[in-house]
Amino acid sequence: MQELDSHDIAILKVLQKNSNINTQELADVVNLSKTPCWRRVRKLEELGYIKKYVALLDPKLLDLTVMAYVQVSMNSHDLNTLRVFDEFVDQSPYILDCNSTAGNFDYVMKVIARDTEDLENFLMRELLNTGVVQSTNTNLILRPKKTTTEFPL
């Protein structure tokens, strides 16, 4: 990876907070003129530092009121089992994050649902119905304390 200078880091910090900022405003904040700022942003995109731009939605306004961490143990670890699980994770709109872990469980997922009945339906009729999951452990999130997409730079 290419070394980032102070302007590149400043650009990334600002874009993490507001990816909707226009180029002139961004240039003003990071003390560059518009064209060099635009070039740097394009370079950061091409190099993969900036993967994509997204809108962060309010789950409550969308009636998504239940979040949980679901720990998953697999039946086996053969390639077909992992392929089935990966495909399920990729297609499921309920799963916000899924990470392979070391320890007592193979994966931990952050899941969102409309209510506890919707969560139960996801767990019992979708996740466990894949045929590749041995067991799960679910921890409901009562109230998020901190949620961020910003990395420390």
What would the CATH topology of the largest domain be? Alpha-Beta Plaits
Q: Supply the helix-strand structural class.
A: alpha+beta
Rg, nearest Å: 20 Å
Q: Please provide the count of β strands.
A: 4
Overall helicity: 25-40%
Tell me the major beta sheet. 4 strands, antiparallel
- The largest beta-sheet arranges its strands as 2-3-1-4
How much strand content do the residues show? 15-25%
Count of helical stretches: 5
Span from first to last CA?
Answer: 15 Å
Shape: elongated
Looking at this protein, list some descriptive labels.
4 strands, Alpha-Beta Plaits, 20% strand, alpha+beta, 153 residues, Arc Repressor Mutant, subunit A, 4-stranded antiparallel beta sheet, elongated, 5 helices
Report on this model:
The chain is of the alpha+beta class and about 150 residues long. About 35% of the residues lie in helices and about 20% in strands. It has helices spanning about 5-15, 25-30, 35-45, 80-90, 115-125, and strands spanning about 65-75, 95-100, 105-115, 135-140. A four-stranded antiparallel sheet has the order 2-3-1-4. Helix 2 (about 25-30) crosses helix 3. The model has no long low-confidence stretch (mean pLDDT about 95).
What is the element layout, followed by pairings?
Elements: H1 6-17, H2 23-29, H3 34-46, E1 66-74, H4 79-91, E2 95-100, E3 107-113, H5 116-127, E4 133-141
Helix pairs in contact: 2-3
